[in-house]
Amino acid sequence: MNIEEIRSYSLQKPGTTEEFPFGPDALVFKVMGKMYALAGLEATPLSLSLKCNPARAVNLREEFEDKITGAYHMNKKHWNSILPEVLPPALVIELIDHSYELVVNGLPKKKQAELKNSDL
User: Fold this and answer.
1) How far apart are CA 120 and CA 114, in angstroms?
2) Where are the transmembrane segments (predicted)?
3) Helix 89-106 × helix 109-116 angle, to 10°
4) How is 53-76 classified by DSSP, letter by letter?
5) Residues of the chain with pLDDT > 90: what percent?
6) Predicted pLDDT at 119
7) Element (H, E) at 108
8) pLDDT of residue 76
9) Burial (CB count <10 Å: 0-12, 13-18, 19+), residue 49
């Protein structure tokens, strides 16, 4: 998947916004103000950092040794960097969804209810 496909897919998720809090080369997707994806726009190949369950993160790194690693400048226990242009699109979508769901599930109950009951 390329950055436009990732952007289009991510922006369809409820409550998602896009920002550039770290400068023009780092596109961040947030749900209810919490980051769930970071794309390094200048990286070649494209790099996408996503939140991940710690046990699953380790398994993915072992299975996709060259394509999934601990995320640079992030807590490597909870964040992976993936190469979305070389991984199967279905896996990239699954990992974006997983990251989004982890962040939503970690939101305060009030924010979760607000998200569920809104047209964001």
Assistant:
1) 9
2) none
3) 120
4) -HHHHHHHHHHTTTTEEEPTTS-T
5) 84
6) 62
7) none
8) 85
9) buried
What tokens appear for 90 in the block?
Answer: 């279905």
Residue 82, beta-bridge partner list: 48, 68
Query: How much is the pLDDT for 120?
Result: 52
Domains and CATH numbers, the chain: 3-111 (3.90.1150.30)
Mean pLDDT of all residues belonging to the chain? 94
What tokens appear for 93 in the block? Answer: 């979508």
pLDDT of residue 23: 92
Mean pLDDT to the nearest integer, 72-92? 93
- Residue carrying structure tokens 């242009």: 85
**DSSP 8-state class, residue 81:** E
C-alpha to C-alpha distance for 52 and 101, rounded to whole angstroms: 10
Q: Is 75 exposed, middle or buried (0-12, 13-18, 19+ CB in 10 A)?
A: exposed
The three-class DSSP label of residue 120 is coil
Q: How far apart are CA 107 and CA 120, in angstroms?
A: 15
